[in-house]
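Progress against Task 2.4 (sequence-to-structure conversion) is shown through the following example record, which the project officer requested during the mid-term review.
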Amino acid sequence: MESETTSACMNEPTASAYLEVSGGVSPYTYIWNPATGVGDYEVTELTPGDYVVTVIDANNCELSLNLQITGHKPRVTLPNSFTPNGDNMNDSFSPIFECFEALSYNMKVFNRWGTLIFNTDNVLQPWDGTYNGHSVESGAYSFKAVYSGVLNDKPFQEVLNGAVRLMR
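Structure tokens generated for the chain above:
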């Protein structure tokens, strides 16, 4: 028996598991512990934790497998470069929020002289490499991203400062 699993955000049912059974006599019965609500070879909406799946074939032969679903803590990542060339790959610059939604957000981008060239409070509005409707030059641009959220029922705020390389 082979298995494939994905990981999930902490305490969120976002992982899945897939079993591939060979040998024995079909049909197979799948018993998941803790119960997942569905006894099948593929389950979704799993939370992080340890699971045991027992597979029973038509001859009542059984085999058990231990699975561990790992959990990711909330995090924010920003790319270190982007290429706004219209090929729909890495054409814009914005943060990637994993395992939480920002309650408030602001991102500013500055040129090498400290001039503010991009400012947004909308997490869905990335910087497209323009200033006043015109493409900016290739080079390094500094940014400041401020966001807040809730983690374990406690509010938090974080500030990320860094640089991004725009390549044309």
